[in-house]
Model the fold of this input.
Amino acid sequence: MEELKPSPANSCPLTPLGFLERTATVYGDCPSIVYHDATFTWSQTHRRCLRVASSLSSYGIGRGDVVSVVAPNTPAMYELQFAVPFSGAVLNNINIRLDARTISVLLRHSEAKLIFVDCASRELILEALSLFPHNTPRPALILIADENEPAAVNSTITGGDFLCSYEDMVERGDPGFRWVRPRSEWDPMVLNYTSGTTSSPKGVVHCHRGIFLVTVDTIIDWSLPKQPVYLWTLPIFHANGWSFPWGMAAVGGTNVCLRKFDASITYQLINRHRVTHLCGAPVVLTMLTNAPDNRPLDHPVHILTAGAPPPAAVLFRTESLGFVVNHGYGLTETAGLTVSCAWKPQWDKFPASERARLKARQGVRVAGFTEIDVLDPKTRKSVQRDGVSLGEVVLRGGFVMLGYLKDPIGTKKCMDDHGWFYTGDVGVMHEDGYLEIKDRSKDVIISGGENISSVEVESVLYTNPAVNEAAVVAKPDEFWGETPCAFVSLKDGLVEKPSEKDVIEFCREKMPHYMVPKTVVFKEELPKTSTGKIQKFVLREIAKGMGTTSRVSRM
Amino acid sequence: MEELKPSPANSCPLTPLGFLERTATVYGDCPSIVYHDATFTWSQTHRRCLRVASSLSSYGIGRGDVVSVVAPNTPAMYELQFAVPFSGAVLNNINIRLDARTISVLLRHSEAKLIFVDCASRELILEALSLFPHNTPRPALILIADENEPAAVNSTITGGDFLCSYEDMVERGDPGFRWVRPRSEWDPMVLNYTSGTTSSPKGVVHCHRGIFLVTVDTIIDWSLPKQPVYLWTLPIFHANGWSFPWGMAAVGGTNVCLRKFDASITYQLINRHRVTHLCGAPVVLTMLTNAPDNRPLDHPVHILTAGAPPPAAVLFRTESLGFVVNHGYGLTETAGLTVSCAWKPQWDKFPASERARLKARQGVRVAGFTEIDVLDPKTRKSVQRDGVSLGEVVLRGGFVMLGYLKDPIGTKKCMDDHGWFYTGDVGVMHEDGYLEIKDRSKDVIISGGENISSVEVESVLYTNPAVNEAAVVAKPDEFWGETPCAFVSLKDGLVEKPSEKDVIEFCREKMPHYMVPKTVVFKEELPKTSTGKIQKFVLREIAKGMGTTSRVSRM
Done:
C-alpha cells in the first residue's frame, strides 16, 4: 500500500478559520456577539472579519507578519481572532494588564507590523512605543473605540499616532475578500507571550493544525452543544481564551462580551442572556462564591476552570450555587486543555466534599491528545501510580506548541528528542490513572528533606471559612533548610478575624506536622500576575526578607 | 518564524486508536458492549482488544498486513475495529451479504493474511477460498463462535480449516501488549471495498489521520453527549459503521450489538436499553415506520441517516414517531459524513412537511472538512446557487481516502491536480448554501434534452400512501431518447391497490409533465445491494428488456 500517498484532495491544511464561514451559512441570522445593547449576527461577524482582513491586506499586511491586539473581551477583540489570521498574519494578543516597559519589549521581540489598540489602552501603548530606541521601526496603530468604555481616553478622533479606527477598517474593507489559507497546517497562526510568574516572558507560537486540534478536542471534552450562550469571563488575551473564540464559531454559540470580570455583573449577565457556559481560572470561582450578592442559579451554568489547581473547597462552594464545574489543565504552550478531570458516573454516590476532592484532580488526557505521563526526576521513568510519588508532568500531542519565538535554546530545553514536552509542573499519578498537579517545580518546599507541595497546604487553608485567598511558599530556615510560610487574605466583613496561631492550629488538625506553615502572614490582597495568578516569586522574596528562623521547637 | 518546525512532541500521528485506552481509564466500570444477556465493561473491552492484537502479533501479523473480518455487528466485530489496527495490520471488513465468488476476488485483491469469520459465514468463506486458484497462498482462518446464532454451522469445534477460535485468541493474548502506533498518520488503517451499485468493487484505503478526523468531526456534528446508548442498526462492515466504533469509544458510549436489523427487535431494544442514538440508511427509516408494530417512543431517540437521499415523506413519518432525525451525506471514499443538514432554528416555525423537505437536503460541510462545491460539468466552475443548476458534487478535506488499492488509474480519475475529489453524484447548490444531491451521474434520465433527477421523481412517489419503496430509471425511447420508468413495491395489507394509471395520475398532479414516469412496474420487492441500496443497474436492465416505446402521445 506504499503507493498510496497524501494528495491535494485529502492533505488540505487543518485550520479552525473555516468554522466561521460554515457557521455564517448555518446560523447567519442567529446572534454571534452580544455586548451591552448591541447584537451582531453570524452573517455580520463573518462579513466584518473578512472586511478587516481585506483592509489589513490593503495595508500590505500578509503571510507571516505579526499583528498585535491590545484589548479586553470586546466584539472587536473577538472578530480579530479571525480577521488577523484571515489576512495571513500571525495573531499576537497582548495582555492589557502589562506595563508599558514589558509591552515595549514584547513588541520589539515580535516585530509587530501593526497594533489594534482598545481605547482604554491608548496611553499605555503610546508610552510603550515611546520606549522604542531611536531608529527602530514602529508598528502602525489602529484605535478600537468603545462607547461603553467610560475612560476619558475614549474618542473617535484618531489622527496623530493612529492610522485610522477599527470601524474605518471594517467600513473600507471588502466583504468578498478571499481569506488567506495557510500553505501548510504547520504555518504559524498565533503568538502568545506567557506572562508566567517570572520576569522573562516567552513567545509561544502555535500553528493552524495545533489550534484546530485543541479546539475540536475541547468541544468534545466539554460536550459543547450547538448554540451555547457563552459569557466571556476568561480574557481572550489569555492563551486565546483557551481557543474558545474558534470553538464558539464551530458550534454557532452566542458570545456575550465583557470588558472586565466582575462577580455581580456576571450574575446579572447570566440571568439576562440565559448564559449556559463560561470559563475562568479558579480565582473566578472564588470571586463568584465570595460575592456578597451571590445567589443560587435558576438554570444550569457550566463552568470550565483551569490555569491553576483549584482548591476542592472552592469547587464545592461553586457547585453548591448550582454551577456545573469541569476542571482541566493546560498551558499557554498547549493552546488549551490537554488534561481534564473526566467525571466517573460511580463518583455520583459520594458526598459533595468527596466529589469536590476528586474533581480537584487534573484528570486524564483529552481524547485527541496523544500521551501524558509523570516522570521521576532522577530515573526519567514513569513514577508509580500511587498518588504519592512526585515527578515532572510531561506531554505529547498535536497541540504542543511549535516552539518559542527566537529562542531555540528555550525550545530545546522543554522539548527533547524523546518527544516529550516538559511542563515544569510537579504531579503524581493516582492508581486510577488520574493525574494530580502538586506544584510548579520551583514552588515545591523542601523541609528537612521532605518535599512539601505548596498546593496541598493551600487547599487545606482554603477549607477555613475565614480565608479568602492563600499562598504558601518556602521560607529559608537554618535548621530545616526551608519551612512553609503561608500568605493569607481574609474575607470581608468577618466578625472575628483568626490569628496566626488560629490558622496554624487549624492546619495542624488537618495535615502532617512537617507540612504545617510555621509562619502565617496576613495581607489585604495577594500580589497577582496580569493573568490573575498569584505571584509566588514576590511572596518568596518577602519570605526571604523576613530572615531565617534559627530554631523551630516543635515538629 | 520559519525556524519553528514540527518536532516529535507535537507531530505525533493522529489516530483514533488512543480513544480506547482513555475510555478504559475513565469509564472502566461502565458498559461498553451489550449483546443479548452479556455485558462487557470498557476495561474488559480494552484488555480483550489488546489480547487479540497480541495474538495476531504472535502469528506474525504486523504493520501493513491486511486482516479481513466477515461478521455482523457482534461484540467480536466491535472489538476487531481496534484489535486489528492495534497489531499494526490494516483492517478489512467484508460485507457478509456478498457471494462467495465476489469475496474470493476481494480476498485475493487485498492479499489478506488472516480472516476472522463469524460462524454464520463459515461455509461462505470456505467456498470463497475453494475458488482460489491452485498454488495461491490462503489466509489463515479464525472462527468467531456465537451461541446466539441459531444457524447449525455454529460450533466451538474449529480444527480443520480453522487455526483457532476468536476466544482462544483472546485467552492466549497478553493484556499488557503495547499496541503498534502508526509511524506516520498517513499509514493505512482500513481497507473497505465499496459494493457500489456496479459490478467492479474498489478497495478504498483510509489512513489513521483520516479516520481520526472523520470520527471527531462526526461527534461534534451530531453533538454526541458523553455515554450515549448506541444501537448498532448500521452494519459495521458498511464503511466501518461510518466510524462510530471509534466514536463510541471516544465518548464512552454503550454499544448495543445486533446481528441483523429488524424493526420489531429494534423497538424492543430501544425500550429495554433506553437507546439514545442509532444510524441507518433511509431504508431503515422506511422499515421502522412501516413496521406493523411501530409505536411512538417514550424517550427521544436520535437517528442519523445517510447513504442515500431520504425522501422527505420518510423523514416526516419517522419524526412523527418521536425519532429526532439528522441527515448527512458521505461516501465510502470519505469514511463517513462530509456534509450534514445542519438545522437552522428559524425552520422550527415551518409546518412538519416543510421541515421534512428542508431536512431532506444534504446540507453543509461538517465543521472540520475543508470545502464542498458543485461544478458545472462543462465549465468546471461552481454552478449558480439557485437550487436548479445541476453539477457534480466535489469535495476536499482531511478524510478523503488515500486512494483505491492497486488502482492508480481509478484513483487519479476521481482525484485530480486541482485538489478535488469527484463524487460522481449530481447535485444543486441552494441559495442558502445548502447542497442537495439530485442523483448519481449515471442515474440522471435525459428525456427530450431535459435532465430528470430520478431521486426527485422517487420522492414524489414516496408521498403516495400506498407506496412502500420506489425507484425510477431510464427506459430507452425512440422519440424522447429516454423516459422515466418507475419500479414500485406497495405496502402490505392495502385494501385497494393502485393501478399503473393511478400512479401516473398521482405524479402528473405533482410534477412537470416531462418528469412523469411513462411506465410503472409493480414488484413484490426491489432488488438491493448487499448494503441495502436499491440496485438501479438491475432495474435499468429490466427497463431496457421491455423494449423501446415507439411513441408517446402526450407531453
Q: What stands out?
A: The two ends of chain B are 68 Å apart (CA to CA).
